[in-house]
Amino acid sequence: MVTVAVSGTHLEDQDQYILRTFKEPEGQQQAFQLLVRTYQERIYSIVRKMVIDHDDADDVVQEVFIKVWRNLHKFQGGSQLYTWLYRIATNECLRFLEKKKKRFFLPIGDANQELAAKIDQSPSLDGDEIQRRLQKALLQLPDKQRLVFNLKYFEDLKYEAIAEITGTSVGSLKASYHLAVKKIEALLQLETI
Amino acid sequence: MADKINLDDLKNRGLGNDPFPAPEGYFDDLSQRIQKRIAQEDESEKQPTKVVRLALRWYYTAAAIAVLGLAIWLINPFRSTTAPVAEVNEEQVQTLLADVSNQEMIDYLQMSAVDVTVSVSLTEEEQEELLEAELETFELPEDYYLDTDYLLEEYL
User: Fold this and answer.
1) How many Å separate Cα A110 from the centre of its chain?
2) Is 80 exceeded by the pLDDT of residue B146?
3) How many CB atoms lie within 10 A of CB A79?
4) Separation of alpha carbons A45 and B22, rounded Å
5) Domain presence at residue A3
6) Could you tell me which residues come within 8 angstroms of residue A57 by beta carbon, excluding any fewer than 6 positions away?
7) With an 8 Å Cβ cutoff, is A63 touching chain B?
8) Does A17 reach chain B within 8 Å, measured CB to CB?
9) Testing the interface with B: which of A134, A169, A176 to mutate, by most B Cβ within 10 A?
10) Is the Cβ of B5 closer than 8 Å to some Cβ of chain A?
11) Which of A85, A111, A175, B6 could form a disulfide with A101 if both were Cys (CB 3.0 to 4.6 A apart)?
12) CB A50 within 8 A of CB A63
């Protein structure tokens, strides 16, 4: 289980240090490296669960941090730094998935078949049948609903945090997650019959 | 009958573990790779003429195809002899075409809204390259950027 201690004092202090140091021309590289090292695993985790393939995840993660580099000077602290990072990451995931479908002119079903094939090929799921079935069942959800599910179930984020990241109300998120859980449980149950 | 599946129970039994861990060593040099890519992007942004040449290359190709098509149409041996154009011989065609500059041909294609991608049968990758090249040479007004902080403000 991936846990995120995003409200810890230490992390907030470090975020303030990053933002302060980044404002100085001679401190930008150092601040950026610290930011990447701090958030790389969490960003990768979110992205990889959405795009499935490691090479695709690597591309998206790099894009995320490049956008952070180019826009960090505009960040005004209206939200937590991690919220802003996660927002960029989730947007980039959804854009990537949308672009992939359009590039190959695939109907949604075919695009998901490609992702399902990547799940079957994933070495980390060898021998973990229930996880493999869960990941394939998640592909039946719309991308945004799958994203909410991942943020809640795997990343263990609170609804309030997910609401900030996605710009959706807590009530909508709870409904979306609840429906996703029911659908996934039904799909998994069907496979056991 | 199979037990009812409950995701929360399964999570407590380990289903909530990260299903896709990163390969070993992946994070060791991620920061350096990102900064290298940033440097490469910054370098390529300093050379806009290469982008323009890429776009023009396709127009020149389309221009060549248009010239060829025009030539074939003008010297078509199957054209009816009653049509005055059939009287034009090959030498005259070459003379006519020689007077048409490449730039005039490009302007003609652009005004005619010829779909370059269709004319030259571009692959999807080449189409994207062309589109990116056209976008990069297109300058947006200064205040556009103030309104389109989509990276920061776009919500799901």
Assistant:
1) 22
2) no
3) 15
4) 8
5) no
6) A44, A47, A48, A51, B20
7) no
8) no
9) A134
10) yes
11) A111
12) no
Place of tokens 């190959």: A104
Reported confidence tier of residue A140, pLDDT bands at 50, 70, 90: very high
- Does residue A2 lie in a domain region? no
DSSP B85: G
Query: Which residues have C-beta within 8 Å of that of residue A129, sequence separation ≥ 6?
Result: none
Say if A147 falls within a structural domain: yes
Residue B6 contacts residue A188 (beta carbons within 8 Å): no
> For the domain that residue A164 is a member of, what is the CATH number?
1.10.1740.10
B18·A87 Cβ contact <8 A = no
The alpha-carbon radius of gyration of chain A (Å, integer) is 18
Domain that holds residue A35: 8-192
A110: pLDDT strictly greater than 90: no
CA distance B141 to chain A (A): 19
Task: Rank A106-110, B56-60, B107-111 by mean pLDDT and report only the highest.
Answer: B56-60
Q: How far apart are CA A117 and CA A121, in angstroms?
A: 6
Residue with tokens 């070495």: A123
A59 touching B, CB under 8 A?
Answer: no
For position B140, what pLDDT does the model report? 45
> Do B7 and A65 make contact, defined as CB atoms within 8 angstroms?
no
CB–CB of A189 and B5 under 8 A? yes
Pairwise CB contact (< 8 Å): A67 & B38 = no
For residue B124, give the nearest of A29, A103, A189 by CB distance.
A103
Quickly count: other Cβ atoms within 10 Å of residue A32's Cβ. 21
pLDDT score recorded for residue B15: 83
Number of domains in chain A: 1
**d(CA A44, nearest CA chain B) in Å:** 8
Contacts 24+ apart (CB under 8 A), B131-134: B133/B51, B133/B52, B133/B54, B133/B55, B134/B55
A44 lies in some domain: yes
Distance CA A178, CA A68 (A): 32
Q: Which of A18, A39, A41 to mutate: most B Cβ within 10 Å? A: A41
In this model, does residue B143 exceed pLDDT 50?
Answer: no
